[in-house]
Amino acid sequence: MMYPFMTLNDDTEITHSEMKTDGRVKIYIETPDQRGGFRNATCYLPSYTWENIVGFTDDEITSFEKLIRNNAHLIIEFSKEGGFLNASNL
After folding, report:
1. What are phi and psi of 8, to 5 degrees?
2. Which of 3, 72, 79, 90 sits at 20 to 30 Å (Cα–Cα) from 42?
3. What phi and psi, each to the nearest 5 degrees, are found at residue 2?
4. How many whole angstroms separate alpha carbon 46 and alpha carbon 44?
């Protein structure tokens, strides 16, 4: 299951999984492109391992990693609680 975490001004969606039994959390980033498709990438916490990067530049991935590092504590907490909505009791 993937849970919404953040939507950026350019319609980039950042979602995360529940915490896996091995302690990892999958973060998926997706941005609509000009051709009706998507650019996307996957990052795993806590190792910050990137894979399946399609259409993003190195600078964009660096920016995403900074954003993820600044919010990792929240993402990890939400991954244990079933996403933001469950964690906030909304």
Report:
1. -90, 170
2. 90
3. -115, 140
4. 6
Burial class (CB within 10 angstroms; exposed 0-12, middle 13-18, buried 19+) of 30: middle
Q: Identify the three-state secondary structure at position 86.
A: helix
Q: Residue 84: pLDDT above 80?
A: no
The two three-digit tokens of residue 69, written as one number:
């590092």
Structure tokens at 70: 């600044």
Specify the DSSP element, H or E, that contains 78.
helix 58-81
Phi, psi of 49, deg, nearest 5:
-85, 125
Classify burial at 10, counting beta carbons within 10 Å of its beta carbon; exposed 0-12, middle 13-18, buried 19 or more: exposed
